[in-house]
Amino acid sequence: MQHNQKEHLYKILVIGDLGVGKTSIIKRYVHQTFSTNYRATIGVDFALKVLNWDSDTERFGNMTRVYYREAMGAFIVFDVTRPATFEAVTKWKEDLDSKLTLDNGKSITTVLLANKCDQSKDILVNNGLKMDQFCQENGFVGWFETSAKENLNINEAANFLVKHIIASE
Ligand code: GDP
């Protein structure tokens, strides 16, 4: 690592309904980014706790507040093969915004992931314009079609999120 390079440590949340692919996305990203020597040399630790939205989530509202604490960015994930998981996206975003704001009062940088794009696609995702509009209206800085299975766009989405976080600092 060059001397003039600055190290950043960011806590990034990965949020979404059960089974949308959160764990797979994290594994894919972590495995790829921190494979071989890099991990051995730097000694990176990852803490991973998967939260899912269900009827009990409200009751554990304070727990999610604890998990959300000090995060700098978030992915909200849905499964393109299951429209209900897209319906839940706004609920997750509201939950996130209600529990976590940055010191400057703004909500944290959030990117929307349309995961399992290797499968048949939801009509909404086929209409990119609609997705752009949805992101604008709901406070997402952008969206990506991803596949944790085929390793599509995971790195691109992560780089995009980090760039936005750095730019907003
Ligand atoms: P989580 O509950 O959100 O953490 O979801 P998981 O990561 O456990 O994934 C749920 C299921 O979806 C598993 O069977 C995964 O193998 C599968 N899965 C995750 N990502 C993808 C993807 O991009 N494409 C396909 N086809 N399956 C996926």
From TrEMBL:
It is a lipid-anchor. Keywords: GTP-binding, Lipoprotein, Membrane, Nucleotide-binding, Prenylation. The keyword Lipoprotein applies. It is found in: Endomembrane system; Membrane. GO terms for biological process: endosome to lysosome transport; phagosome-lysosome fusion. Its main location: membrane. One of its GO terms (cellular component) is trans-Golgi network. GO terms for molecular function: GTP binding; GTPase activity. The keyword Glycoprotein does not apply. The small GTPases Rab are key regulators in vesicle trafficking. Belongs to the small GTPase superfamily. Rab family. This is Ras-related protein Rab. The lineage of its organism: Eukaryota, Metazoa, Chordata, Craniata, Vertebrata.
